Amino acid sequence: MVMFNVTRKETAPIDGQKPGTSGLRKKVKVFTRPNYLHNFVQSTFNALSAEKVRGATLVVSGDGRYYSKDAIQIITKMAAANGVRRVWIGQNGLLSTPAVSAVIRERVGSDGSKATGAFILTASHNPGGPSEDFGIKYNMDNGGPAPEGITDKIYENTKTIKEYSIAEDLPDVDISAVGVTSFGGPEGQFDVEVFDSASDYVKLMKSIFDFELIRKLLSSPKFTFCYDALHGVAGAYAKRIFVEELGAQESSLLNCTPKEDFGGGHPDPNLTYAKELVARMGLSKSNTQDEPPEFGAAADGDADRNMILGKRFFVTPSDSVAIIAANAVESIPYFSAGLKGVARSMPTSAALDVVAKNLNLKFFEVPTGWKFFGNLMDAGLCSICGEESFGTGSDHIREKDGIWAVLAWLSILAHKNKENLDGGKLVTVEDIVRKHWATYGRHYYTRYDYENVDAGAAKELMANLVKMQSSLPEVNECRLNFACVYFKCKNLYITSAWKVLKLLNCIVKGIRSDVSKVVNADEFEYKDPVDGSISKHQGIRYLFEDGSRLVFRLSGTGSEGATIRLYIEQYEKDPSKIGRDSQEALAPLVEVALKLSKMEQFTGRSAPTVIT
């Protein structure tokens, strides 16, 4: 047995190590600075209780992006030095974020050991490579992200850290080969186990879904299928599940070889970045002569997000979670006894709300961040949840789960078509969505992302929106009339058109007189029904009389600059009006949102980076 020693190395605090809701994300060049990763890992160990570290079992893996292999060796050596008993690593360092959660919750070692937490190495849907993004986050023993109390401690520790512990003479472990390597240290034996990345996750999926029914669907010549992993870690699961277990053709898999730089692409499953899948599904601007598949899906870098497509048809994430919830009990064996409740993030459309009301289900609206769903699930209050940023999941784990969402949709399709595969018309993705709209109404919805905006400008834009909320009557009633010389607003008389434009370009009725009246405007605040914690400043909302909404939020998922997300929603109950083009239906509200926020004035951007 190879022996190792523990070294305590001097260090000093490094600025900018505050983890967000998705962990710590920075450019690779930042993480490779001396002691940057070491400081964060040691600060995490110091933030955990002793029993979660000394003698514990930890998972260390991620989406395989550039710098992951180096980081795994560093964290393993630091774990040994901090008294961890064993480290579990997915083969080649690969574990999807949902698989990590499953491993924590489900896997039992040969000696009866269970994981108490995990370091997940991912920057999710952000690009990878030497000049791109890297990330790290810590998940707890319930399989979910560390709560704010822990992340706050981590951050405070990074500001005062003076030393870290590491077993520098511990040899690097071969993470390409499955097996256990044992070492000896000052506190006894330390094991590193490399295990198959997919087995535990596949076993869990087979306990949730009727694989035999899905197999019948995928093997039918009437049904065609396409899955795009965008060269992320989902590729490590796609062949095992879709081809080997469910009988899909291997040619139905796109970009399913995990790569450190995601093949030079942006591993974000949306209509902008999943170009190859979008084209194959008949949704690109260029016409294709090939008949598109009946069903298509994509994953992000760490496989926790998903995009669902039908033939020439896009399913919004907000509609997706609502449709899964509406059909879960009859289509998915795991939910056959009924749903405990459902939840969505605040920016997500209210489509799920309508389903919950109709099915008499408990419903929760939470801030963005999966940990809020986790609290509800741990308390037995929520079965299915989702967010508009292509995240969908259930209480089988404590992370969103992209492949789970794909299997949920395939289950619904298989259930709807179980009598149609030998004859009769196939029930399609579009059929299911349109029937849902006819039953529950349609929530026209779009999201505008302004990425890498100057952080100061973004904060000024948000502050201006908050300031306007104190003048709600004026926001509603002031109207722009170029035929007049004098305009009254806040008891002031304005004597020139340009001053009117300056004052009123943010006034709803002055922008578009054909939109509904604003009935409420606020900054979303959430009191957790489980632990009573309060989360403030979670997004700025303008709520309209007809159920429409405008939401503005700063996102914390980027590695530099700021991302402004603008969410626009309009609810339509009239069956004769649910078939309109989404962008056409939302055009009046889009105009109001852009002028109300002074988006171009504050950001210098005349168009968003991404429209979903």
Number of strands: 29
Low-confidence stretches are 479-506
Helical segment count: 20
From the coordinates shown, what is the CATH architecture of the largest domain? 3-Layer(aba) Sandwich
**Lateral arrangement of strands in the main beta sheet:** 1-9-10-5-4-6-7-3
CATH fold topology of the largest domain: Alpha-D-Glucose-1,6-Bisphosphate, Chain A, domain 3
**Which band does the percent of strand residues land in?**
15-25%
Organism: Citrus sinensis (Sweet orange)
Protein name: Phosphoglucomutase cytoplasmic 1
Per-chain topology:
Layout: E1 2-3, E2 7-10, E3 24-27, H1 28-31, H2 36-47, E4 57-62, H3 68-81, E5 86-90, H4 97-106, E6 117-121, E7 133-139, H5 148-158, E8 163-166, E9 179-185, E10 188-195, H6 199-208, H7 211-218, E11 225-228, H8 235-245, E12 253-254, H9 275-280, E13 295-299, E14 306-310, E15 313-315, H10 317-331, E16 342-345, H11 351-359, E17 363-366, H12 370-378, E18 384-387, E19 391-394, H13 402-416, H14 429-440, E20 442-453, H15 455-469, H16 472-477, E21 487-489, E22 492-494, H17 497-504, H18 508-511, E23 518-523, E24 526-527, E25 534-535, E26 540-544, E27 549-555, E28 562-572, H19 582-597, H20 599-603, E29 610-611
Parallel strand pairs: 1-9, 4-5, 4-6, 5-10, 11-12, 11-13, 16-17, 16-18
Antiparallel strand pairs: 2-8, 3-7, 6-7, 9-10, 13-14, 14-15, 18-19, 20-28, 20-29, 21-22, 23-26, 24-25, 26-27, 27-28
